[in-house]
């Protein structure tokens, strides 16, 4: 590591050193050797001044296997060019110089065996420098950096840093030392886990865990009790010995370990950045475990960070629980952790910011396996996508420009905004002023405690040497809070107090504290006095002394509420479970004081309504209607079938409360919101409470790119930029991106490479297909002209589609037929493989075949064909009426026993189905437990046109009976019941045509439901119409020709002509 004396010498003499560079290059155009000799003298004198010349092996014209090195300073290779030789951009000539340096680095390795990642090479002409370094299997090549006072200082610092003896602070080394394969991670995580398991009655530890668990459920919509977690490999990964794993405790242990890594790493970084005589050095007392506990207590309470100038890096968090279970085992483990961190060189924070910014994110991804991160929603925005969205936003950087990320996660967007501001101002203003601009301008919120710690650490890393010269303490503007719920509940009418439930206590505070913007001051007083064990009397006197206006404004009732709050804090302090709650409350109210900003940017959580914790759903339910983004009524509202994403409500709440008029919001969103019926309808209104207009300024569709794929997450990603208080206008330019090849894009890839080499864009246009908030039709101008001619204007279409049968318990109703044993009995196995929940496997059970039918699932249906693998038990009459239990006992006693035998365990599952409880019983309170949803007389129609809902384009087929047995579509299929076979083929032919498929793809995002028949102007079949019959005949032949690709292609070509004539000429 470069020691502080060297660092500060170079910084304090940077103007003088740059002047010497200018002298060295002047008059030496076309004279490379003169320039090299002149600059070598500058470096030689600098090394003498710093008294380090003997520590750096300096060689000129050093020969290696792959060429000659002009100058070698330890592990730093300089390839000189005559002044003005390097172009301002990486032209062909520049790249030839770069290749020369790459060969020299590889040759240097072959001659010295020094690893290539320990070597840096540069092309240098005195006016520009190009940095060349190998990282992993790829080369990191900078754009030409113009020499200035600051860039020359960075050049010298890098030269000295490469020759440091410390371990490089890169993610590969961190993973090796602290990742899941390291001995440290296995020992610490398993120890933490075992401590949690064996000490569940320790009050403070238990409360901190429960508070974390409560917040975590709200963050990711995750229920530890009910959701299927595919994370069984964690037991082996962390060498846990117990048979049954308590996964909430294990996740908490992993996150505690990661939080410790962040805290110790951040402390070392700050110590490096603040390494001067004005700051008292912090040293761990590793020789004594009890003193070491006090060191970590100081860290957890934020004391050491406050002394280093960060007032709120840590304020007591949920991950400090290990202090209350401290013993020599924990002491020894953390002693080893500290000693490992002391081996690192932290100069990368200043010298290689682009490398440093991904340290924590990549380390966390290693600690949590992909399956677990996917299950818990633990994935953050890829760097290239975040940078793309910021550039697409085109923010104006001014001293008073305000940015907010309301769900900032690990701080990806905040870090890039900080970088943008530093690049804008770094050469024109002092570090103190720059730091003030950044901390006033760039703010973030998140509800995940670990994310907040991580984001604050990344904020510090992004600031880098901007912090070095600043002596005034700062508050990092990232807060642990719910950006949406806090402001919503803050504006309820007739509310004179706030109620804040926590696992420690339910706290109540007068609303006036917030209204008068004094809540932070009150909580600071509470914190200070509780830590001093001060009495209620002292608290009252201190309030009157410091906040007389507030106290005088409080009513007797409000004043008593405030007194009771302090009394509760005293009680918690006596029980040793205080320490964080005042700061938790302080953070929670941060959104209430948020100034309206110019830009909101981020990636809000994509959590469906039905996956949110029930109490959180209840708390936000009314606001869906207040903001007019949830219009569903009746059955849809009861079922949550609209799949409304919480990001819909968040988008409009955040714009309403935090965005200036004319301000812009840029979000990563689920592309389904732009084209789905139901959930997207409210989003596409583009008005706030149907009063304030919102315009769409930009849309980019990355569905084909799959930006999160390398994190093993597949979702439909898009970005959107909205402007507040501006009318929306159609058509909207819609940019759809495609991959240049099939490779998965690395989430750490830089934006320039992604845009230039890996993806390409097609410009389309978006318009609502019908009403102003209906799904967008996305097409070229020519396609839109055609599609407009086939869009239905009729309110009641001739053909109506329905969903197939919904069992809501497929593993019970879906069976495999094995063999007949009597004329009316068949042996069946049920299908536990079709259930996420554990369910009894019933094998070789004899059932009457009266109510067993061939089943068709979505995956069983293709264009023109189908294949049935399962059968379905359907105890219904042909007119769609359920068979009552008394009758079933008489006619099919085995079927009855199958459902009701106690050892099968089916009855509780049948009763708990949402469709049964919320819908079926509402219509018939005596309905048998095996009753099904989406079933009626139409289910038993002789002919059906069916297609799968989840598909690209329509893939329809006509079905009737198979071996005199009715085929039953399941709920992932859509069907049109018909009585006429020719009419069924007619409709199938139209739906399978190219024009219909292209039209459907233009406005359907992911679920091709029955609404497509409402959108297309399909004439009613007429048996006297020649064209109708020709289409039907071609469709029937297509069914017969499946497998004969040549003949089928000819039929489809002719069919397309006929359907085009029907739809475009009618």
From TrEMBL:
Task: Report the GO molecular function annotations.
Answer: nucleic acid binding; site-specific DNA-methyltransferase (adenine-specific) activity
Q: What biological-process terms (Gene Ontology) are attached?
A: DNA modification; methylation
Q: Which InterPro entries match?
A: DNA_methylase_N6_adenine_CS, MethylTrfase_TaqI-like_dom, N4_N6_ade-DNA_methylase, SAM-dependent_MTases_sf
Q: Which reaction does it catalyse?
A: a 2'-deoxyadenosine in DNA + S-adenosyl-L-methionine = an N(6)-methyl-2'-deoxyadenosine in DNA + S-adenosyl-L-homocysteine + H(+)
Q: Which Pfam families match?
A: Eco57I
Enzyme Commission number(s):
2.1.1.72
Query: Residue ranges of the Type II methyltransferase M.TaqI-like domain?
Result: 440-690
Q: Is the keyword Transferase assigned to this protein?
A: yes
What protein am I looking at?
Answer: site-specific DNA-methyltransferase (adenine-specific)
Species annotation: Sellimonas catena
Q: What phylogenetic lineage does the species belong to? A: Bacteria, Bacillati, Bacillota, Clostridia, Lachnospirales
